[in-house]
Amino acid sequence: MMAALQLLGLLLLWLPAMRCDIQMTQSPSFLSASVGDRVTINCKASQNINKYLNWYQQKLGEAPKLLIYNTNNLQTGIPSRFSGSGSGTDYTLTISSLQPEDVATYFCLQHSSRPHGDTNHNINHLEMQMCGV
Questions:
Q1: β-pairing, 90-95 with 82-87?
Q2: Per-domain residue ranges of the chain
Q3: d(Cα 40, Cα 99) in Å, to the nearest integer?
Q4: What are the Cα distances from residue 116, in Å, to 10, 19, 88, 119?
Q5: The domain made up of 22-131 is a member of CATH 3.50.50.60
Q6: Measured between alpha carbons, how far is 133 from 99 in angstroms, rounded to an integer?
Q7: Residue 64, preceding bond cis, omega within 30 degrees?
Q8: How far apart are CA 12 and CA 16, in angstroms?
């Protein structure tokens, strides 16, 4: 009985660690668009992340800024042209009408699973430039 409890304890410690290797794939990796365009950026997880996905924008020389948290919640102060959607393994950031100030690098970040104490998030990014501006 004691051996069975010890094994159960080991399994409980081991199972959460299995979810620490979630791979994120973002597409496209580069995008050129024009002012007023509708832009979509996709992020795919290697397994279900239960909507624990954030989107960030980083402009040259600045720190990343949180746009969307937990898939579809707009961060305070972010324009409503930004929106997020998705579930399971597939997520999308949409900019409904691209503005010149939206030229930036965009990151998707899953936070459903990280090793305990790990501060390095799994970040993918898209670099975007504006055409005809």
A1: antiparallel
A2: 22-131
A3: 14
A4: 16, 12, 23, 9
A5: no
A6: 10
A7: no
A8: 7
